[in-house]
Amino acid sequence: RVHGGNILHSFDLMVKALLVVLTALFGGVEVFAYNQDQQFLASFRVTGLNQTQFANTSIVSDVLKAFNQTARVPLEYLSLFNVADGGPNAVLVQVLVYAPELFITGDGVANIVLPLPVSVSLSIDHSRLTRLNDLASSVGVDLPSSGTLTAVVHFDDGSSRDFSTDFRTRYQITAGSGLASLNGNVLVANETATETGSVTIQVSFVNAPTYVNISATVTVNVVSFGQTRIEVRSYPSSNGILDTTLNQIHCTGLYQRAQVSVIAKLSDNTEFDVTSEATIQSSNPSVAGLTGQILIGQTTGTTTLTSLYFTATSPPTTVTVTNANVYISAITVTPFTDNTFVATYQTSQSIVSQVKLCFTDGTCFDGPNLLSDASWIAASSLLSFSGDSASSLAVASDGTIQILGNSVGTTTVTIMAKLCPVSVPAIAYLSFYTNLQPSFNGDIDLGNRIQRIFSPITLLSTSTIEVRVRSSAYLKAFQIKITINPLLTVATACAVGSGWQGPFSCTINDPINEVLFLGSNPASKIVGTEIVVGTLTLKGISLGQTALSGVMVSMFAGSAS
């Protein structure tokens, strides 16, 4: 079986076969089949014939009959007949017979098994076309005026081959012939057509035998430009609802803003945003003026918006600015990752980016909007922020928090909408752990890096605590003292940490309330903000709450030498 072959090729393929007497193979002969490009196709061996038999054979028909005597090549495949009248596997062969003293040539038919085509798929690189002079071909919509067809034939052995430009492939428009024409495997929209609609193209194959009966179709829409319209959506907004009224925002005296877009609609009802290619104008900028796409309310009144997209003008859209207020109706907060604010001492961060506000008219500001797109309205004019743990967190009126220490439990920031005369109170809470990282060179940190700094120790159970060090140069030696409460806990073990390489020792219970870590490695090249140099295991011996503290007694860090 010739894998990767193609039955469609059998109609014009001339194959040469060479018969060579191979005395080493028990006096048999071997047939090699090549195509017109001298590429090897197949071979078969014929036994039971010797050189004398070949030498005494004077005509090709006798040679072919001799083939049949071996029962290796059926006679019906070796009889002479025209290729077009043969079966699906018939291939014309020119036979050259070489013998020691005889050279005979003749024509015969050899059988080469080729995979049969079972189906064809047809596709086009653009599902919509338009005429070249139509606005739908302009920048912003960018529809092409032509599309390339691809025809792939699939065979019974699982292989496939692209026949898009094969000379036997035939394309035909079976519906919508007035809308487009074919140039080879390229479909081109008809420039003189005035209508739109669908075009159906069929692929089939010419000069194919009756058993090769495969075809496929694909449909393409030929469309034209329809019209443009203006959309006015709330801004900044996470939901961007359509709204042509700009109100005041929650008793701030500031007006809402809107984002203006120009939408092009085609004859098949598909739409494209062409704002970047259009010009938008406000008839009364003193009421509401445009900065790019953003419509900014200035005072009460109305204004009319129009747009121009190349030669297409949109119908006018009226926008009204009023003194009516929209109020904050709901506040939602996105929590910190792992519910932990992890940072170095006095690091500040705005939590406004984690706050989403929704108003009584259905519009919403989400956190990123409040920090960027809504920077024209201060968060402090809409919200108040307060914290419940001044020792671990400072909270500013603009929603900025600053980490001051580790929290034993969670600390909570309360976010409340500023009160307006007729507004409904809206409130939300953001609870999290504050967890200090080592903040300066030589600083240490104990416990968990995220969430609760120390996991609770149940009575008579143990907990392992990491000891981390910050070193801006190669950490070569350190001495760390950790103080515990011997009334509640007892140190049961200490060990080198995953971040330290080199000599290490530690002592516990000498005295009973202290643990000492020592490390020294002059060749050390360890540097980092949170180097885990050791671990301490504590056992709970009594109920209660206590502090655990550590201090860097001495440290040496330097260059690689």
Could you characterize what this model shows?
With 561 residues, the protein is mostly beta strands. The chain contains 3 helices and 42 strands. The protein has a 5-stranded mixed sheet with strand order 3-2-1-4-5, with helices on one face. Strands 6, 8, 9, 11 and 12 form a 5-stranded antiparallel sheet that branches. Strands 15, 17, 18, 20 and 21 form a 5-stranded antiparallel sheet that branches. Strand 11 (180-183) and strand 12 form a beta hairpin. The protein is flat and about 100 Å long. The two termini are 72 Å apart. Mean pLDDT is 82; it is low at 1-110.
Summarize the structure.
The protein is mainly beta. It is built from three helices and 42 strands. A hairpin with a 2-residue loop joins β20 and β21.
Mean pLDDT: 82
Beta content comes to: over 45%
* Rg of Cα set: 43 Å
Flag low-confidence runs: 1-110
Q: Treating each run of at least 4 consecutive H or I residues as one helix, how many helices? A: 3
Shape: flat
Could you say which structural class the secondary elements and strand pairing correspond to? mainly beta
Biggest sheet record: 5 strands, mixed
Separation, N- and C-terminal Cα atoms = 72 Å
- Within the largest sheet, what's the order of strands? 3-2-1-4-5
Tally of strands: 42
What percent of residues adopt helix (DSSP H or I)? Answer: under 10%
Features:
561 residues, single chain, five-stranded antiparallel β-sheet, flat, mainly beta
